[in-house]
Amino acid sequence: KVFYIELHLFVKIFFVNETLFFVLALGFMQHSFTQHSIFYEPKDRVIGGPPVVRNLNYQIDCLI
Questions:
Q1: Spatial contact of 63 and 44, defined as CB atoms under 8 Å apart
Q2: Distance (Å, rounded) from C-alpha 64 to C-alpha 35?
């Protein structure tokens, strides 16, 4: 019975981690899309996100 509870906990934690990873992947995809779209629509760019992404956007703006 203890082993079963441990297994259940492990599955629960694994599922939560998978969901977090999925959400993170979606967020990164969204950030890359907003980064690529600044070439076409600078005014629709999402301001915010991690500082690295903001820095990248700033650098690309300076390059253009």
A1: no
A2: 13
Q: Three-class SS of residue 13?
A: helix
**CB neighbourhood size of 57 (10 A):** 19
Please state, in angstroms and rounded to a whole number, the distance separating the CA atoms of residues 57 and 17. 29
Q: What DSSP string runs through 19-53?
A: HHHHHHHHHHHHHHHHHHHTTT-GGGPPP-S-HHH
* DSSP 8-state secondary structure symbol assigned to residue 64: -
- Residue in 27, 32, 35, 33 with CA at minimum distance from that of residue 64: 35
Q: pLDDT tens digits for 37-46? A: 444 444 444 4
Q: Which of 60, 12, 11 is nearest to 37 (CA)?
A: 60
